[in-house]
Design a protein that fits this description.
- Residues 234-337 form the Copper resistance protein D domain.
- The chain crosses the membrane at residues 60-83, 104-124, 144-161, 168-189, 195-220, 241-258, 278-296, 316-337.
- This protein has 341 residues and is mainly alpha-helical.
- It folds into 2 domains: 13-42 and 202-341; 47-187.
- The protein contains 12 helices and no strands.
- It has helices at 3-9, 13-36, 52-82, 92-123, 135-139, 142-160, 167-186, 196-224, 231-265, 271-277, 279-308, 314-338.
- Helix 10 (271-277) crosses helix 11.
- The chain starts with a helix and ends with a helix.
- Residues 1-9 have low confidence and may be disordered.
């Protein structure tokens, strides 16, 4: 590859800085959420088990996996929807998007496999160095199997989409990505809870919709800015995706949380009390408030641009950056929720 082509495909420094900022903000939100809920890992006084560092590493791998998932989904959504070519050959930005999706999928897969190892150690209460003696037991843990299935699917995704040339082929990658999201969501709740089917099904919808929404906004920043002539069309398409996804995120998140609280409190009639007293309820309320802010503010902001045909300038992109940072807070709180009983 020549120097000119390499420069053309290099990610701008501001986007790299923005990605790192999102990671830091999400990590801070995660730590604050975990401590606020009182679910922070503690060291076993007897020195038995995987240890506090391993417990914290599970949160880290979940956060990395979540952000990589968003990056992968955003790039695929850009190639298939935002930069749509009706199944024809991908343009320059579309080909860049599928390469980015492949790179993000590699990180997603690595975090999933690492998470499977750490999850095995925590659930089996065994140091990581001794897991090789309990290999069969680890493979029998549903949460571990779910992460391994996700990792395998995402590796196939990373390889399969690396050099696709059409939006229809990239669309197949979207289906694989959605399939990879489902196994961990199905094992997010204990199987003996009476409301697990309701909460689990809602969570699957929540994860898919949230990934499309947040990833789509990230894709808009990454690829929409470089496609200035087609930016109004890209922005209008994203507004449609964001509106549908945000509504599904809000409703499915509330339904999933209500199912979890109902299982803890003993019925749906106790959900409101549990929401105001249980640590999980407090985090759920905080996360819901953040998403409501994003839904209302983001929709009004983008509709003004699309309806009035305003040329998106620096002020517009700064507001989009703020949206992404607020979304990072929501993602960090989501991971904290997954750590809270």
């Amino acid at each position: 590859m020549t120097a000119t082509r390499a420069a053309r495909h290099r990610m701008p420094g501001r986007l790299v800085a923005g990605g790192l900022a999102a990671l830091v903000v999400a990590a801070i939100a995660l730590v604050v959420g975990v401590f606020a809920a009182g679910s922070e890992p503690t060291e076993n006084v007897l020195g038995i088990g995987p240890g506090e560092v391993v417990d914290w590493s599970l949160s880290l791998f979940r956060l990395i996996s979540t952000l990589a998932t968003v990056g992968c989904a955003g790039a695929l959504l850009a190639a298939v929807v935002l930069l749509r070519t009706d199944g024809g050959p991908l343009g320059t930005q579309g080909r860049r998007a599928v390469r980015d999706a492949s790179n993000a999928a590699i990180i997603w897969a690595a975090a999933s496999f690492a998470g499977a190892v750490v999850t095995s150690a925590i659930i089996l209460n065994t140091p990581v160095s001794l897991l090789r003696y309990r290999f069969d037991d680890a493979l029998g843990v549903p949460e571990v199997k779910a992460l391994l299935i996700t990792g395998i699917l995402v590796v196939a995704l990373a390889v399969g989409i690396r050099r696709v040339q059409t939006s229809s082929a990239a669309g197949l990658g979207v289906l694989v990505a959605v399939a990879a999201l489902i196994p961990p969501a199905l094992t997010a709740y204990p199987r003996n809870e009476a409301y697990v089917v309701l909460a689990g099904a809602a969570l699957v919808l929540h994860v898919v919709a949230a990934t499309s929404w947040v990833g789509g906004l990230a894709g808009l920043v990454r690829y929409g800015r470089a496609s200035r002539d087609g930016l109004p069309f890209v922005l209008e398409r994203f507004s449609q995706v964001a509106l549908i996804s945000s509504i599904v995120v809000l409703l499915s998140g509330l339904l999933s949380g209500a199912g979890r609280l109902a299982a803890q409190a003993g019925g749906f009639d106790q959900v409101l009390d549990a929401a105001t007293t249980a640590p999980y309820g407090g985090l759920l309320i905080a996360k819901t408030a953040v998403f409501l802010l994003l839904i209302v503010g983001g929709w009004i902001h983008r509709r003004q641009v699309v309806t009035n045909l305003i040329e998106p300038g620096p002020a517009f992109w700064r507001l989009v950056a703020v949206e992404l940072l607020v979304m990072s807070i929501a993602l960090g709180l989501s991971v904290a929720l997954s750590q809270t009983g």
